[in-house]
Write a structure and sequence with these properties.
Length: about 550
């Protein structure tokens, strides 16, 4: 591994949950220095809430431990096991990092990790294996000070090595599904997110093992995407259709998405730039290009409203689809961080507008849970930074000749106002729930315990210090407690609009591992002191596993 600045010797021993203590990023600072001052009372409430979230995590964990320990998932209604990720114990691995952050003991789990057989004779998702297992193990390795924490890294390396044959393809793009034992895959089609959500984990694995092969595989994919052109089906710079044929390197359809199938590819353009402390300009360039194109081709606004929507875009037909999915709600957090790193203030406004929509989907449903997919309000128009938030009437008025003359000609110019630091007025009191825009309907009524909106609330809170984001998070947490809790753990919900029916009959017998890795972790951190897993020291992989930021360059 090459720490590119030989003068920076990063000590690994510093307090693990607070990052490498002598690492100060050369990129702009992400977090707000002073998070809103709290009174003792506010502090007590925050700590109480934090403790409740920890107890909820433990409640779900104990259900898994009792009925399904070692399996991928617990089915929270029937108390049976479910193994969609090769049966390597996905919930176990996905939970360890959260336990470390919550200062829970992982001692008894290490022998279980050691025993994991990494090559089941079945088709496994390369993407899920990387984000859940590799991400989980590497993050836990970096966060832990356990004397036997090497077990975590050893297992990560074993998994990494077992996956390597999946990258032996014409362009180095990994198979979508792959049998690590027989090394066979049944399909040549993969998806943008599946192909390009590898870099944080593979770069970190190379860093710790000293074996550059993983980072090299990750870089080949970045170069492939970076150089993809019109002849391969890329028609808008920085926006990549979601289906890829890995045999001929062609982007097969023309639908671009920041939700399902596309999401984390764009997330990783930005995050790998942060991970390596900006040492590889290519990553930053790719991120900015994608965001510029997204804003000009995909984003829509509603006249007079704060809501912004981001839906898939068919680049060939030049058509936006009408459905926004919950997965897209990670975008506000990403844009907010990117706005700071690359000094793009308008991206912060867009982040807030999109978050407005995501939060609204929770607040406007009577369970305080968000549906999985909803439609854009009617009357939507392409995003325009000049007109965003203004009603038709305001716009007509603003353009009237009389108003313009009154403001600019008739009135003598007044001296420029003295520059004053804006006074930040924060309030914990939530405004009334705005009206749901005309024509907006719910296409998929389920809540699947997903984290994205909470993730964006967490990022926004850390970046602005505005406690309103905590209040939104608390509302969502209460929805989860009320409608998802089962006798043994937490379940997904069938219909977020039904609060009156018997809770159990509105539940689905499924508890995805990201409840433990992401949803509870982001909630817990939302109510934690801001230097715990600071965004200036860590970057979260797409499964919310924090990885240490440090200058390094494997791209050459
Ligand atoms: C997680 O597994 C990851 O965040 C992934 O990138 C997409 N979504 C799920 C959680 O919703």
């Amino acid at each position: 591994p090459s720490d590119i600045n030989p003068n920076v010797v990063l000590t690994e021993e510093s307090n693990r949950l607070y990052g490498l203590h002598n690492y100060v990023s050369r990129l702009p600072k992400i977090q707000q220095d002073i998070i809103a001052k709290e009174t003792t009372e506010e502090r007590d409430v925050r700590e109480e809430r934090r403790e409740s979230i920890k107890q909820s995590f433990l409640y779900g964990w104990n259900g898994y431990k009792t009925y399904a320990l070692g399996a991928d998932e617990l089915k929270p209604l029937s108390n049976k096991s479910n193994n969609p990720f090769g049966g390597l114990g996905a919930t176990l691995v996905d939970s360890i990092g959260t336990m470390l952050i919550m200062e829970l003991d992982i001692d008894e789990l290490l022998p279980l990790i050691q025993k994991i057989k990494v090559k089941p004779d079945e088709q496994m998702s390369v993407f899920e294996t990387i984000i859940r297992y590799l991400g989980g193990l590497l993050s836990a390795f970096e966060l832990s000070d356990h004397p036997r924490k090497h077990i975590l890294l050893d297992k990560a390396e074993e998994i990494g090595l077992a996956l390597l044959p999946a990258f032996e393809t014409a362009f180095g793009l990994p198979y979508y599904h792959f049998n690590p034992l027989t090394k066979v895959s049944k399909t040549n089609t993969t998806y943008l997110a599946d192909a390009a959500t590898i870099q944080l984990e593979f770069i970190t694995l190379s860093y710790h093992t000293g074996n550059p092969i993983f980072a090299e595989k990750a870089q080949v994919i970045m170069d492939f995407i970076d150089s993809a052109d019109y002849s391969q089906g890329v028609t808008v710079p920085g926006l990549y259709p979601s289906d890829i044929n890995i045999a001929d390197g062609y982007f097969k359809n023309s639908v671009i998405s920041f939700g399902a199938m596309g999401d984390s590819a764009y997330e990783y353009f930005l995050k790998q730039y942060l991970l390596v402390d900006g040492t590889v300009p290519q990553f930053g360039r790719m991120y900015e290009q994608s965001i510029d194109s997204m804003k000009s081709h995909m984003l829509v606004q509603l006249p007079g409203a704060k809501f912004l929507y981001l839906t898939p875009y068919d680049a060939d037909r030049k058509l936006k689809t009408n459905a926004m999915d919950h997965l897209t709600c990670f975008v506000p957090g990403m844009l907010a961080i990117g706005s700071k790193i690359f000094n793009r203030p308008d991206d912060m406004k867009v982040a807030k507008g999109l978050l407005e929509t995501c939060v609204h989907m929770y607040r406007s449903s009577n369970t305080h849970l968000s549906p999985e997919i909803w439609s854009v309000g009617k009357d939507s128009v392409p995003y325009n930074a000049m007109t965003y938030g203004k009603s038709e009437e305001e716009l007509v008025n603003a353009r009237s000749w009389k108003n313009w003359r009154n403001r600019h000609v008739a009135t003598p110019p007044s001296p420029p106002p003295k520059k004053q630091e804006p006074i930040q007025k924060f309030s914990r009191v939530l405004e009334d729930v705005p009206e749901t825009p005309d024509g907006s309907v719910i296409y998929d009524t389920r809540y699947l315990l997903r984290p994205e909106t909470i993730e964006s609330l967490f990022v926004m809170y850390r970046m602005t210090g505005d406690p309103v984001y905590q209040e939104y998070g608390w509302l969502i947490y209460q929805g989860i407690e009320t409608y998802c809790k089962t006798k043994s753990a937490y379940a997904s919900v069938k219909n977020v609009r039904l609060s009156k029916m018997d809770t159990t009959s509105n539940q689905i017998d499924s508890m995805e591992t990201f409840l433990f890795a992401e949803t509870f972790k982001y909630l817990y951190l939302l109510f934690s002191p801001p230097d715990l897993i600071s965004l200036d020291k860590f970057v979260f992989n797409t499964e919310a596993h924090p990885l240490l930021r440090r200058p390094m360059d494997f791209s050459k």
